[in-house]
Amino acid sequence: MTMSAGWYLRRLSRMGPQEVGGRVGDAVRRRRWRSAPPDCPAVIGARFTAVLPVGALAAVPPDAAKRLLAEADRLMDGRAEYFGVDRDDLAAPDWWRDPRTGRRAPSGYAFDVPYRDEDAVGDIKQIWEPSRHQYLTVLAAAYALTGNERYAERVAEHLRSWWAANPPLRGVHWISGIELGIRLLSWVWIRRLLDGWPGAAGLFEGNPVALNQIWHHQRWLAAFPSRGSSANNHVIAEAAGQFAAACAFGWFPSSARWRSAALRSLERHLRANTFPSGLNRELATEYHGLVLELGLAAVAEADAAAVPVPTTVRLVLLRMTDALAAVVDNRLRPPRQGDADDGHGLVVDGAGTDRWGSLLATGDAVFGRLAWWPEVTGTDVRTPLLAALVRPYGRNASADKRSVARPADRPAHFADAGLTVLRGPEEIWCRCDGGPHGFLSIAAHAHADALSVEVRHDGVDVLADPGTFCYHGQPEWRRYFRSTLGHNTLQVDGADQSVSGGPFLWTRHARSRILVADTSDEGVGRWSAEHEGYRESVHRRRVELTAATQELRIVDELRGPRRAVRLAFHLGPAVTADLTGNRAALTWTWDGEDRSAVLDLPGELSWSAHRGETDPPLGWYSVGFGRKEPATTLVGTGFADGAQGLTTVLRFRG
């Protein structure tokens, strides 16, 4: 999608004077850099010393290694899947081609490329993702575990191909700082995992082309940091990648300066991006995972290079890990909240590895698990490799732990983030959303989902958050998946609670307020909140989960004048609904067992079922970025005011 002049004006209105000044400086610098870029300073006698300790690879569990090698062999055949598109061209990639549209990004000065215009460039996410080189970290890990040089040779072939096709500041891969930061982190790990290969030094520190790329990546990141209203997960990736490279590839005159600046940025923005409770301020769970992965990788790099790290960095990561352990369901699935683009900080695992279990396993290795943490039964490759680099301060040294009070019991209410989890018998899990609309003035990754609920039974989505699906190129789908109607909450007069100014931009944010969050009674959990996003009216919602009856009761009130409303409940893709009047019989199968529930809907509204509709979109579920499938959405239409409450009751059957 191409941004209009109006979008840029609205975007400008969300910036403060300091940010505007910084962006003007960026624009001047981009014009100055348009001339021939400088050469990398001469590097003499560079050595790579940030190697894995002896025994680290031997600690990788056999089943995790087996999954990794299966993935590596698939990649060697040129096959991979990115955002719902199966590819068979990765044996010799065209780094600028989008396989979904068939378009090829234009060349030229990087900052002239209209990367948001799909007609000119193609799907930018499809083009960027392979160039994060995380598939090459998988191949490098396969070499490290097997010693089979064909994996290393493929990595070297692809890196040389990429470097030749993407000289500094030319083309689409030099536009976005998050891409450069994650790519640098991948290169650090590729060099580390290839350390036993005879060609490793000649590929990196002995290769003038590689040195030039590494230097220019860091020069770019030092010059163009994400700032102000854009200082979200992007700035974390930029700082983590630059810090990792300045630690592991500290061969340049500017390395010490880059390392110090990146560490200051990382410390500052980790704190800024994280609530004191440990949840990510973007209120987008996938970005909680990304930021945590990036932070852990940066700390591992610091410890490998013996670079002191402020205590606050470790404490933020500790709080993030405890918060993740608190909010997952019994299958280790966290909430589906806000945007999600399947972004990862460091990938050295094969398909089928549980991302969230892996993060909790790493948290256990680094910080030590608490008694209330859920059990992690799966295995991964990344945890033993990271744990081998991180100094053993987490489990054995008490100094770090004395600086923060870790929760003695599993938290259920995160007041600063407005997130509450009600838990019941038969593994009933219910997330209630009464938090801020999003992070910073643009709330880029927020959805208009105030007061929404998300309900699972034994890990199965029953009342589901439909997800994200896309960012660029399909505006009608982007609008739907982040709309109020696209969530389990109340829509008034056909409008969203918060006002969108375009992609990644909200110009007015609904403000929510939690009234009750009582999870102390094991028999009944209660939650209530309200928001004022509909101007003259206030939407108030009460939720009760009763253990004895396995019953979830939701009461919606619209305080103010009589207005047209739509109340939506999105069912998970595994759930079938038989709607009769205002009662829906829900059925699904899980682990070979038939399960069921009854959903009694407010009789004051007229109810209809929708599935897989496209004009306009309604009745969809996105399991991951770029992928969607039909799912049933129940919509009640009518009028409401302060004189009545709309009561919905979900009863699970034993």
UniProtKB/TrEMBL annotation:
Which Gene3D superfamilies does the annotation name? 2.70.98.70, Chondroitin AC/alginate lyase
Q: What UniProt keywords apply to this chain's record, in alphabetical order?
A: Lyase, Periplasm, Signal
Coiled coil (UniProt feature): none
In this protein, which residues make up the domain named Heparin-sulfate lyase N-terminal? 128-305
The listed locations are: Periplasm
Domain Heparinase II/III-like C-terminal residues, every copy: 410-638
Q: What is this protein called?
A: Alginate lyase family protein
